[in-house]
Design goal:
Blueprint lengths: L1 E6 L7 H12 L6 E3 L13 H7 L7 H13 L2 E10 L2 E10 L2 E7 L7 H4 L9 E4 L2 E5 L8 H9 L4 E5 L7 H12 L2 E5 L2 E6 L2 E6 L3 E3 L5 E4 L6 E6 L2 H5 L2 E3 L2 E2 L15
Parallel strand pairs: 1-2, 2-3, 7-8, 8-9
Antiparallel strand pairs: 1-14, 3-4, 4-5, 6-7, 9-12, 10-11, 12-13, 15-16
Helix pairs in contact: 1-3, 5-6
The structure holds acetamide.
Length: 265
């Protein structure tokens, strides 16, 4: 299975330009599954909810999604991409899984970060795992990294690869995702953006350093902080299916959930 990411610098509000940047880069990729950053088409630092809503896509009626579906058909690969989602009057910070047969799933970010609560509705769909090209894939978005329950839930649902679109402004996530990968014995692809959103209300700088973490907790590859990078590598999913960390220690069989009731209170 060949998995990877595209790290780039979205231009705020320039949806068509960002789509062209993405499709041009991905046309060069030979991969089964590629992950793009959070809010890849709009940029991140919205002035208000009305601006986020105006720039958002309805996946059922969207030239952006039509272009992505056509690209997946042409290249025979799958994409997970962050995007601003419009559904009726609601607006979500979402991530879509698309493949050669079209749109497969939309995940809506459960844990909104900082100002995001002013722009988006909180996620309202269950965490799910989808089967593609012989792999089981789960999705989480950026700040979900700080909640180990998300990666654990995806892994318990059978995820072998966690796709993790991100727009990181802090420095903790990359190191933390190595632990998420180790404790769940999964691969995790964190696709971050870089560059700056300069807006009337201020500036935000994003930290790049996208990465692929392995089931042994090792960083298999990490991008530079402030540069475009399309990266793809082969991974062995059998390693992610086996939850043993010693012959007698199975990370899932050894759990004691009857003692974790606080976690769901
Ligand atoms: C974030 O959740 N975009 C930091």
């Amino acid at each position: 299975m060949r998995i990877g990411y595209y790290q780039f610098r979205p231009q705020f509000g320039r949806v068509s330009q960002n789509l062209l940047t993405i499709t041009t880069a991905l046309r060069e990729a030979v991969a089964d599954l590629l992950v793009l950053p959070e809010l890849a088409f709009t940029g991140y630092y919205f002035r208000d909810r009305a601006e986020a809503y105006r720039l958002a896509e309805d996946p059922d009626d969207s030239p952006v999604f039509e272009a992505l579906k056509a690209l997946c058909r042409e290249k025979r690969f799958h994409i997970v991409t962050g995007f601003a989602e419009r559904r009726g009057a609601n607006c979500y910070n979402s991530a879509a899984l698309l493949g050669p047969d079209g749109l497969i799933h939309v995940y809506r970010k459960l844990h909104l970060f900082h100002d995001e609560r002013q722009w988006f509705d909180p996620g309202d769909v269950p965490l799910r795992v989808l089967s593609i090209s012989g792999a089981r894939v789960g999705i989480m978005v950026c700040y979900d990294w700080a909640f180990p329950e998300v990666a654990r839930s995806l892994a318990l649902h059978g995820a072998e690869i966690i796709c993790h679109p991100a727009n990181l402004v802090l420095s903790f996530c990359q190191q933390t995702m190595l632990t998420r990968s180790l404790e769940n014995h999964v691969y995790a692809v964190t696709a971050n953006r870089y560059g700056t959103d300069s807006r009337p209300q201020g500036r935000l700088r994003f930290t790049g350093r996208s990465q692929i973490a392995g089931p042994d907790g090792k960083c298999l590859h990490r991008a530079p902080a402030q540069r475009n990078e399309l990266f793809v590598m082969d991974v062995d999913l059998a390693i992610a299916r086996d939850k043993h960390i010693t012959p007698l220690s199975d990370l899932f069989a050894d759990r004691r959930p009857e003692w974790y009731a606080e976690l769901t209170r």
